[in-house]
Amino acid sequence: MKITTLCFFVLCSASTGYSIIERDVTRQIRSHRESEKYSPDWKDLDTRPLPRWYDEAKIGIFLHWGVYSVPGFSSEWFWSNWKGGDKKSKDFMTKNYPPDFTYQDFAPMFKAEFFDPKEWATLFLKAGARYVVLTSKHHDGFTLFPSKRSFSWNAYEVGPKLDIVDQLSKAVRDVGLKFGVYHSLYEWYNPIYVEDKKNNFSTRYYADTKLWPDLKQLINDYKPSVLWSDGDWEVYDTYWKSTDFLAWLYNESPVKDEIVVNDRWGIGIPCKHGDFYNCADRYNPGALQNHKWENAFTVDKKSWGFRKTMSLNDTMTMRELLYQVVSTVSCGGNVLINVGPTQEGTIAPIFQERLLNLGNWLGVNGEAIYSTSPWLHQNDSLNSDVWYTCLKPTYNQRHPTAKPRENDTITAIFAIFLSWPTNNQLEIMDISSYLHAGTYKVELLGSNNVLNWKIKNGVTNIELPDKAKIQSEYAWALKISLK
């Protein structure tokens, strides 16, 4: 919230060294700041402007890493599946571990002996990411930081004996990226949570004595730029006291002006409240949304955590990955691309390859992605392989996903196409009326050539160069701007 800056002359009191005018102005500023505080209700919290950095970043990396990476079987929900009676999980444990083996016995095996946070951060930078979100705690309750409320069930005391959140946050920030944390609100088998659940959530022992202290420790100790909430769906936001927490986060926390949060804060909240919406895992509506949103998806299509049985066919191809990136950004969203590290602390080579290829693509075409806004059209009405973005200097912090207004200055329009036409002639429609309105040039990013184009029957035909001479392999971006 904006605080009015007041300039004044200082008239000091000899006895106090503090002027009457200073006291008066300080009182005015304090009063103004207090009047601008967000109330702990969704209506007021929803008026908070979206911090600009997040909208401009577009590309994030998601990391699901924890005790579940040790069995590396099925998914990060392994403990729940096993304890819930899933036959494949039970058979896996019967075949490979003694009868009395527990999920907790996996924790000492989570040694992360090859974890190199600087190496990870460098990889994410090369991938073209602008922020990184780490699972500080998943639904199993095991924290990757020394939680003061998670005795002997955290990575500082068991397994790697490291404060992983601290180490990775420093490495990520050292290379110039933003750092965020994922945190599950609930814990499957925490006895305090189970007791509240038995009481039909009429008691709040877990939320008060475990969740809130952990969340505040994360915010105060690590100062994340993103808080990615999850595990909210069993109970309403009133149990979690979500609005009270967010009011503190926005008004008083050390990251109150920087942080962004998602929409998973209780039954009925997703896709309705939050700085950005996730709505559901792998959410990509393919159309412009009225609110800032994020498409969180996995390179391994079957799991967020690392799977030792993952095959090449289980992973996204570069074309599939770029479709998610391009279509999401065109429709006003960010992408949060998930990879699951191994129990040893390495990123699988197939994940590295996908991320580095993405970085290479962004190195050529990033101008059509970073800091862009939705254009008047998203997916071309004639050619479904073409998606649009635009550049405009004015940031609409109240409605960053809005189409350009009449008084907005558009410095460039980008048409990103995912298939190269066999005859090197790209036909698109939605740009035609815009090209008619002035004198424009069309360039292919990564190429120094200005392309020829013509309009016939409302369809723009653009002559592309020889594909063999072009840097990008998977998708290409045209820049349309005034000569």
UniProtKB/TrEMBL annotation:
Key word Glycoprotein present = yes
Coiled-coil residues are none
Reported EC number(s) for this entry are: 3.2.1.51
A Gene Ontology term for the protein's cellular component = lysosome
Q: What range(s) does the Alpha-L-fucosidase C-terminal domain occupy?
A: 378-480
What region holds the Glycoside hydrolase family 29 N-terminal domain? 29-367
Entry GO MF terms: alpha-L-fucosidase activity
Q: Which Gene3D superfamilies match?
A: Glycosidases, Golgi alpha-mannosidase II
Q: Which family does it belong to?
A: Belongs to the glycosyl hydrolase 29 family.
Role summary: Alpha-L-fucosidase is responsible for hydrolyzing the alpha-1,6-linked fucose joined to the reducing-end N-acetylglucosamine of the carbohydrate moieties of glycoproteins.
This one is known as Putative alpha-L-fucosidase
